[in-house]
Amino acid sequence: MRELRQHGIRTSGVVVGQVHVKSDASSHGDGHWVPVIAFTDMRGQQAEFKPRVTGGGLGLPTGQHVPVVYLPDKPKSACVDTRRHMMASVRFWLLVGVIEAFVAVLILVQP
Question: pLDDT for 56-83, tens place per residue?
Answer without folding.
Answer: 555 788 999 999 999 988 888 888 877 6
